Amino acid sequence: MSGADEPGLLAALVGQRGDLSGLRALLAEGGIVERPPGDLKQAARRHGFRPAQVRRLLAVRELARRWHVPADTAAPAVTSPREALLQLQDLRTSPRECFAVLYLNTRNQPLACEKVAVGGLNVAALQPREVFGPALTLGAAAVILAHNHPSGDPTPSPEDLAVTRHLQEAGRLLGVEVLDHLVVCPERFRSLREAGTL
After folding, report:
1. pLDDT digit string, tens, across residues 100-144
2. N or C: which end of the chain has fewer CB within 10 A?
3. Residue 32 in contact with residue 49, Cβ under 8 Å?
4. Residues 1, 13, 41, CA angle at the centre, nearest 5°?
C-alpha cells in the first residue's frame, strides 16, 4: 500500500482515532500486503496498536492480498492481431493521427499501451527512443506498433514500411522484438505481419 491518503484510510479500517503517528510509522517501515503476518503483528504492537486493531489490520492485509493480482498474470496473452487491436480501440475512433505501442512481457501479456505521438504525425520522423524508452522502463520483451489512418484506408504507406523496418532493427539491438505493426481505421485494419511485410 502506498499513497498520501493511506494513513486516514487505514485508520478508518482498523478503528484508530486521534494521533496517527504510530500508524504512519508502521506504514513508513514498508508495505502492509508484502509483510508476513507475524512481522506485521509485532510491528503494529510496537507502534501502539491495541489487540482489536491488530486483528483488523491483519484482516485488511489478508483481504488486500487476496484481491491483489500481479500484473504478470492479470491479462491473457495477445496471440493475434485482432487481440492486439482490442487493446488499441482508441485509435479506431481518433480523428487525429496517433502512433501507439502495446508493450508485452515474455508471455505476450500486455504491460501497458502508450500513445507515443499524437497529431500532425510524421511517421518517418518517429524516433526509436520514443518507442523503446517505455519498453526498457517496463521491462517489455516485445512490442506491437500501431497507428491510425483517419482517412479510412489502412494501406501502409512507403513511410509506414520504412519506419517499421527501422524500429524493428532498433528493437533487435535493444533485445525488444517488434511483433507486428497495425494500421488502424474506423472500420478496417491491416497487420503488416499478416500481409508479409514485417
Report:
1. 999 999 999 999 999 998 876 666 577 899 999 999 999 999 999
2. N
3. no
4. 65
Q: What is the C-alpha to C-alpha distance for residues 127 and 40, in angstroms, rounded to an integer?
A: 47
CA distance 111 to 96: 25
3-state secondary structure of 36: coil
pLDDT digits (tens, 9 = 90+) for 58-88: 887 777 766 655 554 557 889 999 999 999 9
**All 3 cell numbers of residue 87?**
487493446
CATH for the stretch 73-191: 3.40.140.10
C-alpha cell read off for 192:
503488416
C-alpha to C-alpha distance for 24 and 48, rounded to whole angstroms:
11
Each residue's pLDDT tens digit, 149-178: 988 999 999 999 999 999 999 999 999 999
> Amino acid identity of 8?
G
> Strands 110-118 and 142-148: what pairing?
unpaired
CB-CB neighbours of 63 under 10 Å: 12
In 107-157, alpha helices (H): 128-138
Determine if the pTM surpasses 0.70: no
